[in-house]
Design brief:
Blueprint lengths: L1 H19 L7 H4 L13 H8 L8 H18 L2 H17 L4 H14 L3 H14 L3 H14 L3 H10 L6 H13 L3 H18 L2 H17 L3 H14 L4 H14 L3 H12 L5 H14 L2 H15 L9 H12 L2 H14 L3 H13 L3 H12 L6 H13 L3 H11 L3 H4 L1 H8 L2
């Protein structure tokens, strides 16, 4: 036992040096004010007015649409799942009673289902909206998004081609997503920069905010950490309460600078007013890296307690599976959930987790078969590639393992210090 503990500490020390010597990017003075913004408002006179119009037997179609939009904004601001479920209820009622404009409500409900990872149900709604005929472009965009989420990339590409318009924001962001899927990160960034410029030209706050955070993510994947940080700050200048941007800065502090104390300080400030299971999972990862077993257990318990809320449905399956595989070592539970997740969302990522679950459970031939049929050559996601590499290494395929390992060294920032140690161990 001592040998493994010593090796683990040595790896952490080595990785700490590697991640801590890259230079300083973040400056707390840039964002300290954003960490003290207080709770988000979850009501208003406007909301109460329209909500008051909804009765059990109401036919106030406009009220349902407006109230659903407000609930969705409250979910984005607070992370509270119940607001997303309330938006779902309002939109389902709107779909039921709409005689005119039903396709728009179907699309809105489909988007709500996407947020809940209910992709197959969302697809049925999108196809129903397509039959109704109105809002054709928006339905095509929606179908592209859904087929990407469901791993049906040939169908997604057809919808991408059908919406081709290099001057349209909606097409540019989807073309960027397609190129990211293909592993063409430089092209992805150029397209997202064009989309961001269009959002800024239109002065649309929501699309600007979305563009800044997504572009920041892509910059991070490309190793352009200064640019990533700058765009998270841009997002916060528009929305000082934006938890996603704050989490992005915390990741820079942790994964790039090795400044775990600052990363934890940022995450603690987020968790005061924003509640999401993945936030606690990140805190647990940083605690593991720090060797703080008490904080690790505290954060993991918070993650599991929150994610057990049935309202989350399948939203956190991938996180839970990964925790079963690499944290609690409950391989049978991981395999059962991975089988369900791959059925619900048959993407290379989901199949990668399924293959890795088979592998950890000792069903190595089945794991390799899943890799060959559903994963190999179909994704560039670093974590999935790491899972493949571990399976290939066990089979003695050292050539392909080495090839993947070399490619993953460039993804150390994206993977984070704890996972990067698994890359070094290949």
């Amino acid at each position: 036992m001592k040998r493994y503990i010593t090796l683990g500490i040595l790896l952490i020390l080595i990785t700490s040096c590697e991640f801590g010597e890259k230079g300083k990017v973040i400056e707390p003075a840039d964002y300290n004010a954003y960490l003290e913004t207080g709770p988000s408002k979850t009501s208003s006179k406007y909301f109460r007015l329209w909500n008051s119009k909804i009765k059990p037997d109401s036919l106030q179609l406009t009220s349902f649409g407006i109230v659903a939009g407000q609930y969705n904004s409250y979910f984005q601001a607070t992370g509270e799942i119940e607001y997303l479920k309330k938006a779902e209820s309002a939109l389902e009622k709107a779909v039921d009673i709409a005689a005119i404009g039903q396709s728009g409500y179907l699309r809105a409900l489909a988007r709500n289902y996407i947020s809940q990872h209910r992709f197959k149900e969302a697809l049925l709604l999108a196809l129903q909206a397509r039959k109704l005929g109105s809002g054709v472009l928006e339905t095509q965009y929606l179908l592209f998004d859904l087929y990407m989420e469901l791993g049906e990339f040939n169908k997604a590409e057809r919808y991408l081609d059908s919406t081709r318009n290099m001057s349209a924001f909606g097409h540019l962001i989807r073309l960027a997503k397609w190129n990211d899927h293909k592993g063409k990160l430089d092209v992805t960034i150029r397209l997202m920069e064009k989309a961001t410029a269009k959002a800024e030209q239109a002065a649309n706050r929501n699309t600007m905010l979305w563009s800044y955070t997504n572009l920041a993510d892509y910059y991070g994947h490309a190793g352009r950490i200064d640019d990533s940080y700058r765009h998270y700050l841009k997002a916060l200048s528009l929305d000082p309460k934006n938890a996603y941007a704050k989490k992005g800065i915390a990741w820079i502090a942790y994964s790039y600078e090795g400044n775990t104390a600052e990363a934890m300080r940022i995450l603690d400030s987020i968790s005061e007013h924003y509640h999401s299971p993945d936030l606690y999972l990140l805190k647990a990862e940083i605690a593991e890296y720090m060797g703080d077993s008490i904080e690790y257990m505290k954060s993991m318990n918070a993650f599991f307690k929150m994610s057990e809320n049935p309202s989350y449905g399948d939203m956190y399956n991938a996180y839970i599976i990964d925790t079963y595989l690499n944290g609690t070592l409950q391989y049978d539970k991981a395999l059962a959930l991975a089988l369900r997740d791959a059925n619900n969302r048959p993407t290379p990522s989901a199949y990668g987790l399924l293959a890795y679950s088979y592998f950890k459970a000792g069903e190595k031939e089945q794991a390799y078969q899943v890799v060959q049929e559903h994963v190999m050559g179909k994704t560039q996601e670093p974590l999935v590639l790491l899972q493949i590499a571990e399976i290939l290494k066990d089979r003695g395929d050292l050539a392909r393992t080495s090839e993947i390992k070399n490619s993953l060294k460039e993804a150390a920032y994206e993977l984070g210090p704890v996972t990067a140690m698994r890359v070094e161990a290949l």
